[in-house]
Design brief:
Length: 542
Amino acid sequence: MGGGLLNLMAHGAENLIINGNPKTTYFKTVYKTHTNFGIQKFRVDYNGQRMLDLNKETELTFKIPRYADLVNDVYLVMNLPDIWSGVYVDSSGTTSYKIPYEFKWIEEIGVQMISEITIMHGGLVLSKYSGEYLSCLVERDLNGTKKELWNRMVGNLKELNDPANASTNYYKEYPNAFYDTDVTTPGPSILGKTLYIPIMPWFGMNSKQSFPLVASQYNELFINIKIKPVRELYIIRDVENYYKVSIASEIDLPEYIAPNTTNDLHQLYRFLNPPINTGQMTRNSTRNDWNADIHLLCNYVFLSDEEQTKMAGNEQKYIARLPYERDYHNVTGSRTIDIECRDLVSSLMWRFRRSDVNEINAWNNYTNWIGNYPPDFFSTNDFPIVAPPGTFKGRQTANANPANQKEIMLDCAISFDGKYRENTLDAGVYNLTEKLYKTPSNAKDGLYCYNFCMNTDHTDPTPSGAVNLAKFEHVTLEFNTIQPPINGAKQFDVLCDEDGNVIGYRKDAFNINEYNFDLRVFEERYNVVYFRSGHVGLVYAK
């Protein structure tokens, strides 16, 4: 039996959401009048800690006021500070070395800094998702100028995460903040910026799905947002582990690392203030926070009296496509994973990520490479192209290295209760072909998609297909990943008895490799949100 027939067999009450009697024709058009309305933006402040924490998550709780009748799109607004990225002066030897920090904010900082968004009404959780889901959603569904606009809004700009290569940087070199007799007040290396981060709840995707505050009189709407520790939002060069040779010699700068906030040399205050003397290491403040002025910007809609009465007096139902996320750690090699899917699912996304990304805060990197290039592809040797040796030389490859493989997943199969929905297919099917016609954009490498619908566009509320997974007990991914480099330093532990005699050996699977892979699955599920007698609920609750 073909796996596609499982969709037709799995039919139940949930299917009535999208498989009822057709209400639409493509062969007739009717002009319709509409009620009058007005739109206005309001600022909404939060309850909670006023400053972002350097080492812990910061939780923000926003109570959405009843300024108008409906609320539509919502943005998290935050100020990034000016950054003065100075130099570390190493005077431990006979020669003093000045090593640049070259501070960078992480890529997609506006969404990658969000660990969780929870939308609640009363005690009911209506939706919960991460900033990473927003990044994946945009990668899949936004294209062209809209994607460019989104990057500007969330701070995914070279001016913030790669100042040396910013379009406004004529010299294409990092603008280090350096104090000398000619420049006693250095300008910022990175100018501050206000971010406008779309948090993209289901009711903010389309005007037809606006949240009717006027129909939910007996409870309040809350949006809770958790922000990652600030130390996970920037990277600096490892200035203490630098070659003890002249800074003028032709050597690479030290690698980028995530800051170690127990080390005073990595503290954020060193970048929130300019150097104030020729020693370069002194700042006029040691505070690690700034006035981020975090708040929500909400689009409210005012309705006419007639429309208010209809909204408040009648039951309202909205179809909503809600995200769910699951994490599976250390899934290197050949694995079979049960994913907790249920009800009416329109699409799946998943990604693998190296377990060591925390060392460089590369949260949006879904490939096996740390940067944009293979880590060990070219040898340091070269050879003459012309024999006998001439002036032109060629570069040769280095030793074969599994770390040069870019894609993490090799292949994958999907099964429902042991029956294959898709047989084992090469990773390119999920990375390429699924995105060609069913997604508005192409998504980046390493973000895999499988769709039960014909169109994933999150701005279109009209369902275009789904599968009813309430009829199955187990939804399974069977996949193979590449093998990471082996950790030669530790492959087994020696087990001894009380007298110190060796009685066996134990392998720790997590430490066999230099790093492993973590899997996150994003599931998009249809549900119906209803507003009845002033209360809000989900037709298919968790």
